[in-house]
């Protein structure tokens, strides 16, 4: 290898040359000392630390304090859900009404029970009335709770619910009503009806009953409540019963009710009867009964109720699918509780014997502010119907039918003012109802025999009826199928079949085309 010349060829070489001239090197490591030879190595460890001024230190301390304060504030604001430090979870609030009763205090979660804990046996033969009663008593004692009915067939006599209770029917669960009427208790007649609907005096109670309650839920994974009404229907037709039959489920004078995700079937009488209740929701519920030989098995009957929602249901029964009521003649007038603020939407109904959606005929407390929207009525005797009579009094007012589909229906739209069925002879024939402010919009269908039959009378004329966007396919082209009597109202735009002469005609811009002077003529025809 060539020798290094005297000239310094690099900064590293220059530094080495300078170090040699300066004297002995300061060894920076043991390995360097060994390479240099000689005795024990000498070490000089130096720590580098920048000089920090006092003002800079104060700045760092202040910055740290500000950060600490920000974290503290964050922990005590609504953003605390993203906490840096964990806290014990707060207890859940009770349901709304219970929270109000507790004056907003935090309470423990309500208890949950299984019917088997109280001796229930789901074999379809063992009577479980005592188990249901014990479970409800335990929930009442705790101020609320949930009772689960597991899969099985649970035979029972009628029992009562309690406030702040959830009755939960698991998938495959079926509550069966005992068929022996001796197990069904008798109750006083409803005050707005004067006496039991079919017989004077006491009436049978419902299979599942509740009155003067708050926060009641009946739900599940599509479990079933089965009234086993066959024996009741036979005895009724043979006139072997001495009292009015009981409903399947009846809730009276109660509020905040939710019924959802269950099947109700084969009721002895009306299936679901909510009476003088407020804030009721019935959703995702199936209601079934034979379409023939199952008398008076109405599906859902809101009776003198306020703020009701019925939605996303399927109903196929032996009488009216849904019937809005509010008392009967002088007894309903005296009770004075209207049915109002009711919405029915997204419902499919079949009623071979009666109507898909009815108002009345018991409407003596009044019916108003009703919306029937997106309802499909198929294979039925009538589509949507209002029925009343002299003696009922009160009113039917502000009723909106919208997006109604009629399929294989005998009479599509019905208003009948001579439904003369009365509780007794003491009714006042001069107590005539007022019927008006009714609209039908987007009414469509096929295979309908008589699309419209509005039968007002000199005593009870029908006022301010509106038809807009209607096209219904008819079966009989030989007869007049848009029938009217003592009706005043209007047709807007295109309507088929050709409307009756009682109504004014407007174009789509709502400009008057032809004014009718024939409101009181009648062309009602029951011959077909």
Question: Can you offer a commentary on this structure?
Answer:
By secondary structure, the chain is mostly beta strands. It contains 7 helices and 31 strands. The strands form 3 sheets. It has a 24-stranded mixed sheet that branches. A 5-stranded parallel sheet has the order 5-10-13-16-19. A two-stranded antiparallel ribbon has the order 8-9. Strand 30 (504-506) and strand 31 form a beta hairpin. The chain is globular, with a radius of gyration of 40 Å. 42% of the residues are buried.
What is the oligomeric state here? single chain
Largest sheet: 24 strands, mixed
β-strand percent reads 35-45%
Low-confidence stretches: 1-49, 78-95, 97-105
Rounded mean pLDDT is 86
Number of H/I helices:
7
By DSSP, the count of extended strands is 31
Q: Which range best describes the helical content: under 10%, 10-25%, 25-40%, 40-55%, 55-70% or over 70%?
A: 10-25%
Shape: globular
Given the helix and strand composition, which structural class is it?
Answer: mainly beta
Ends: how far apart?
127 Å
Radius of gyration: 40 Å
Name a few traits of the molecule:
globular; 24-stranded mixed sheet; disordered N terminus; mainly beta; single chain; 7 helices; five-stranded parallel sheet; 528 residues
What does this entry show, briefly?
With 528 residues, this protein is mainly beta.
